[in-house]
Amino acid sequence: MNTESLTRRLVFQGSESTWWVVLCLAAAIAAAGLIVTLMRYERKLVPKSTGYVLLGLRLSVLALLFVTLLQPELIWTLDRTRAGRTLVAIDLSESMSTADNHATPMEKLRWARALGMIGNQANAARLDRWAGELQAGKPLADLSWVDDGEAAEHEARRVLAEARRGNLEGIFTELDHLSRREIAQRLLTQTAAPLLKELEELGPVDVIAFAGGFEATDAARLGAFVATPPEGVDAAVTDLSQPLAATAAASEQGPLMGVVLFSDGRDNAGKLDALTIERLRSVGAPFFPVLLGSEQQPRDLAIAGLEFPRKPLYKGDKAIVTASLNTAGFEGERIEIHLEAEGDEPRSKTVEITGPQATVRFELDSGELGRKEYTVRAENLPGETRDDNNQQGFALNVIDDRVRVLLVEGEARWEFRFIDNALTRDERVTVDRVVHEQPYIGLLQQPFFPTKLELPGDPDELAGSPFAEPDLVIIGDVAPHEMPEEAWRLLDKYVADAGGTLVLLAGKRHFPLAYRSEVVDRLVPVVNLRPLDIGGRQAIAAPTERGFRLEPTADGLRQEMLQLDPEEERNRRIWGEFPGHMWGLLGEAKRGATVLARAVEVGQGGALDDERRSAVIVHQQYGLGQVLWLGIDSTWRWRHRAGDEHHHRFWAQIGRWAAESKASATSEHVRLVVARTDIEEGEDAVIEARFTRDLERRHPRAKATAVLRRADADPNDPPFQTLELAPVAHKPLSREGRAVSLAAGTYKVELLIEGANGAGKELSSFLYVHRRQTAELSDLSANRDLLMQFGIASGGRMFYPDELARLPPLLRSPELTQTLREETPLWDHWTLMLVFFGLLTIEWVVRKLNGLP
Q1: By C-alpha distance, which of 423, 308, 323 is closest to 366?
Q2: Model confidence at 608: pLDDT above 50
Q3: Which of 386, 347, 375 has the alpha carbon at shortest distance from 363?
């Protein structure tokens, strides 16, 4: 236990030198003789009592001076002894809720003996014999039930054998209903010699419950934790690095004797590696893992994972859903897998099991708009260890199947022709074009495309303008006289206030360098534009060896529009193999804009400048909408040796990206954006409120708050979480916040705007939080090898439950004595000087009062 011992000592540093002591003593004796001589002279002048007072004062000053010369110091010593502590960590992950009814008789016998359900001193040898026979592979029915010398008659031996066998099988049946968690709890607190009590006799004990995280607990609360693990523990994951992290906090309270770890050893968090195992050696305390659960793979069918489209689908898209199955114990059988959704006829597929894993795929038609929830389910089969891992759910979100695009160009240049071709060939896209300059020889009554934008009389009337209906507006190389300031003001309102998506394409002749417009300057998300025109010998090289290429940034690779292949490495390779561009406008991204691609020299692999200064594709949120800048006029070059594949996919994905904004909840002045409406437990939900410039200007102090309520909760109940949305430095019109620690379920997100006359009234969206897909229940066998690694690497060892009696003697208390020493010099302390001069002052006063010189 912790103890403290305080000692005080007075030492004289000057006494360590003999010659100094002799010198001081000689001087003091000489001074004392002179004082006595002076007293004899003064007694002729003053009364006897006054003489003795003066003598005492003078001798006191001399004594004080003598002591000071010997340099006295007061030393305080505090010895603190801290006893060693033990950390007990109990795994409460979902796999630990498994009841191992598939365990071997040998494993069940171990657990029964550990829990005190069978065995005592009288029959210990018999149980050891049974354990040896079972270990050797002997069937339970053939064990040596009767000892030598017992029940000589055959019938008596038979009856005794049947009784003992029946008793053991009854105990095994009882064990079939005990989960691994419950066995751990009983071993710690409910046996005849509870381990927790034995550990507490050695020193302080810290208890933690862990899974994906850990929380401190104690014996009193352990039962409640075992029954219902707290959310902070995150039972959906097993992370065996958590006990290692907990040792740091435990070590602060005292030295660790050891860590006792109760677990089945099934780690699926992906954090364990050779370095983590190596860290066990630096903890300074041995780990003693206790293996719980059967090492036998049970007969169990589980939906181990689902792959499905996470992004919204267009109406009519084909969605492929792939379910991964764990099928241990069902080899050679045929099982039915069902895909179910409310209101639909279930779909079923038969899978023939040939190994421990299998996959099944379903193809879905996204025919209905909106969000729809599905469940992949396998039938519960006889003999399964668990039936709570036979299904998983997911959801698909289907948006409007039509995207309306307005494409505005100065003339029908190559870039216009190929973009128009890519969009018009997509049956889900409706394209309106305006081409200001086009050949016209009079054979038709009018040019093939309209030649000007029909603008309303009121320059602020967006509803009557060409920009009222499109989901996406693409502006090419138009001249200032073809796009007057009124048109740009309407475009500004289209993006900032109506939440539209605007794509701006650079042009050699006019846009944007020929413009002197504040509105254009605001919309273009780059500044300090500089042309890059490749000429000379490079201009006549092969297409893949000239010019400059575009290299997606890390942010760009996360954008679906730049994902030309689902596999990331393949996508990078496609961008790296594109032919070079001979002309472009490089610029510096504005503060708050996101660079999606930059320019790099062909064959060099390096940027022409840093990422933000060599920006070519740039995205920026603008009010309720968004702007995309492309600083090249030659995306059509991407068709080299690939045809339409990559070029068409790029522009189709831009159209889809623009259509996704339809899912946001929008009012006249505010847009509520939930970055991802479907997330898993443990992920943050990013919620954003985008203001119009008008709202920001009129109410700069307006506050935005997101209120999250469970969809099935009573409206009068308190909200599940209230989230204040804070201004974002690089997004002046946005307020953003993160909702964390959301449990699985459906939430309604309501936006409240304070100080803006109810601008966000009745604006809401939905957020869906799914149970995390983990491998927690995909393999239910205990992992002995991993727990043995923990023990060996840390200097400890692994135990089976029936060996726990051997554990406490291995805990050696590393008592740590900490000595705190404080030295206070007295010879130069101010109090000593005060006493010294005080005595001299009193002596002087006494002399003067008695008429002495």
Answers
A1: 308
A2: no
A3: 347
